Amino acid sequence: MEILQIPILRDPVMLIAFSGWNDGAEAATGALDHLLSVWKESKDDVVSVLIAQVDSEDFYDYQVSRPQVSVNESSQRELTWPGTQIFGLSLPSMKQDLVIVTGVEPSMRWKSFSREILDIADDLEVSMIITVGAMLSDSPHTRPIKIIATTSSANVGARLDLQPSTYQGPTGIIGVIQDGCTKRGIESLSLWASVPHYAPNAPSPKASLALLQAIEDYLGISIPLTDLPDSAQAWEESVTQLASEDADIAEYVKSLEASKDAVDIPEASGETIAKEFERYLRRHQEE
Length: 287
Hints:
The chain is α/β, with parallel strands linked by helices. It has helices at residues 27-40, 56-59, 110-123, 154-160, 173-184, 205-219, 228-244, 247-263, 266-286; strands spanning 2-3, 13-19, 47-53, 68-71, 77-80, 84-90, 98-104, 128-137, 147-150, 188-196. The strands form two sheets. The chain has an eight-stranded mixed beta sheet with strand order 1-3-6-7-2-8-10-9, with helices on both faces. A two-stranded antiparallel ribbon has the order 4-5. Strand 6 and strand 7 (98-104) form a beta hairpin. The longest helix has 21 residues, at 266-286. The radius of gyration is 19 Å and the shape is globular. Pfam families: PAC2.
């Protein structure tokens, strides 16, 4: 790993997302890409720095994750290699700063890769790590995107009223990083968005929005959403239009809606309204 600088950050939280197996419809990386872009362009004294980047030669199979060729504004061809970058965000208006880790899921040497990520987390004195993922599931696009939040940290579980994951089966690199957090005693949290499996194409702004709102809720911060809610609404309307053009898909969506509505309880709807009100208050307090 090439470490460019170690900035002084206030009680930082590290957010991690990787494209690939852990990233249905690119909702997870889409969420962190949005977070990075809006704060890089912010006028609120936000300072964004590139802290480190992982050497792609060590962890990527270029036949699996191929480099990309593009043409820049000067009509020069540029080659971009797959990799992982680590950014620091100093947020004066927030109580904590953030560290953003985003990139392509590595092809090999996952143990060494996760050690490098956790080593830099230790160097930055990160107080908590949040991994962000998205999976395709039997969920209707017309209902709120379900976010599954779990933790293996007893302190985090007690503080945020969360349970350990009960999942058993294949895992991705964020599962390996979560395991490393447990072994090192780093507090951690895992967030997963349930993306409708019949709408798997990227981007999925509604799922990205749901992940960002979950991050807001668990960290007690306010993230500039800009036009993301409008994009989420447009995405939902587009999927609804496409589904209506196929009778079988339209009927299937109706069955998913009925199943979803049958298991949702009034208390859950009330909790959603309460969280939305808390977000509203945070935004207006910061203004």
